[in-house]
Design a protein that fits this description.
Blueprint (H helix, E strand, L loop, with lengths): L10 H4 L6 E6 L6 H13 L10 E6 L6 H15 L6 H12 L2 E5 L3 H13 L11 E6 L5 H7 L1 H16 L3 E6 L17 H4 L6
């Protein structure tokens, strides 16, 4: 069971990414946030015939660290695990290739680019075809531009409020990663720094 706004177990919720929910993965670098999001996304795009959800996933890569080869390797391992033992390697790879067509990957260098993507999703329903249970958004990480925006000017921080407004309009499952504000001081406990607009959005942490 998922526990709202806590660091307790949210895994049952994350592994069934359906309906409207906002899940935040909070933790230090190299603690597996991106890997966990990849597992969730793979579970989302794989077909229902092997235990997936048959969804479309939009992945907003905000720090340039998304590795497609790694994602493909993880997806192939998941397919091999789910399919019968006599499944040929070619059939397993073909299923992964088909599933990857449901992954929309965007590399975003600034908060403004993230805002533009969210606006496009809200304004263009064809970008993410299907109903509420067929869509999922991943933002990795939501905190990528915080220090850059804070050092440049307050306008950039105001743009983040518009990002939150766009996220609030999305009728889909949303999963984000977020790192602590200070790398070493806040390893164990959560401290919000993205503002009230973001805090109100997060359903599970």
């Amino acid at each position: 069971m998922c526990v709202p706004q806590t660091s307790a177990s949210w895994h049952a919720c994350a592994l069934t990414p359906v309906g409207v929910q906002q899940v935040e993965l909070y933790g230090q670098a190299f603690t597996g946030k991106t890997a966990t999001l990849m597992h969730v996304a793979i579970n989302a795009i794989l077909p229902r015939s092997i235990g997936g959800n048959g969804m479309t996933v939009t992945w907003a890569d905000c720090d340039g660290r998304f590795s497609l080869p790694r994602f493909q390797e993880m997806a192939l391992a998941r397919v091999r695990q789910a399919m019968p033992p006599n499944t040929s390697p070619d059939d397993a790879r073909a299923m992964v290739v088909t599933a990857l067509r449901s992954l929309r990957l965007y590399s975003l260098p600034t908060t403004r680019h993230l805002l533009e993507l969210l606006q496009r999703i809200n304004e263009n329903e064809t970008l993410l075809p299907g109903g509420i249970n067929k869509q999922m958004l991943v933002i990795d990480p939501i905190s990528a531009f915080y220090w850059i925006d804070a050092m440049e000017n307050s306008d950039e921080l105001r743009i983040f409020k518009h990002v939150c407004q766009q996220i609030a309009r999305l009728d889909m499952a949303i999963f984000v990663a977020k790192a602590p504000l200070y790398a070493r001081r806040e390893a164990a406990s959560h401290r919000e720094y993205l503002g009230e607009s973001w805090t109100r959005l997060v359903k599970y942490r």
